[in-house]
Amino acid sequence: MPRTGREPMRRRALIGATIAAIHEAGSLDVTVSQIARRAGVSSALAHHYFGAKDDLLLAAMRHLLAEFGRDAAGRLRAAPTPRARLSAVIAASFGAAQFRPETVSAWLAFYVRAQSAAPARRLLRVYARRLHATLVHALRPLAGPRAPRIAEGVAAMIDGLYLRQALGEAPPDAAAAAALVEEYLDLHLAGARA
User: Is there a contact between 95 and 71 (Cβ–Cβ < 8 Å)?
Assistant: First the structure.
């Protein structure tokens, strides 16, 4: 069946509505009907495009991961040094598309979903492995054999700041979050050189 020009727009609208509905509910306890209504389409059309609710949730996760990947790749291409590459990854982690209330809520819900759903767990593992590999690659020239351990700490800080943001009441402060990770990184790089 050929795709119409409206299909990509409707898919994007449903993915955006999924993220907004998760944020509003504070969990994955949303229905396809609620999401469809928010997107301005029928529930039947949402099922036609994505199938079951889990498929729609996975599409939203893939969308967020793809956004992050595009942002990180662009920043990494512009980074001339290993240290600049690390800052590029940190900046992408707290970029405007990722570190906003709706997206933070969605990430938290997806992490919870990954505890009981293998497809969500696989997606998060892929993300975690890619993040770790990118960090280790940039850290190797700066920290040698300590690179994997420092990369693990940076990734844990990023995840932890998302968790804190999801549980907090203040609006996201991407600059402060990135600065905290940068400070952690600088401390460990100084230790690696000592």
Answer: yes
